[in-house]
Write a structure and sequence with these properties.
By secondary structure, the chain is mainly α. A two-stranded parallel sheet has the order 1-2. β1, α2 and β2 form a beta-alpha-beta unit. The protein is elongated.
Length: 79
């Protein structure tokens, strides 16, 4: 019976800690009135040219766009 009580107390404490930590704020809220930057990464075997049309449309809409160029057309090791 004592073992069950210890487990029950441990679960209650764990839940309480999780609830308290979840309620904490990491800082001020993010201003969502201005869209953030866009990072475009070509898919496997893709190239920068494959995402440039999308980048052009996004830039035309006023977004800050960065297109990432991956080595070996994204077919190699990322490490």
């Amino acid at each position: 019976m004592t073992g069950l009580l210890v487990v029950l107390v441990a679960v209650v404490v764990a839940v309480a800690v999780a609830v308290l930590l979840r309620g904490r704020s990491g800082g001020p809220p993010v201003d969502r009135s201005t869209p953030g930057p866009v990072l475009l990464v070509p898919g496997y075997g893709g190239s920068r040219a494959s995402v440039e049309p999308l980048a052009d449309v996004l830039r035309g809409a006023g977004r800050d766009v960065t297109v990432v160029t991956l080595a070996d057309r994204a077919r190699g090791d990322l490490g």
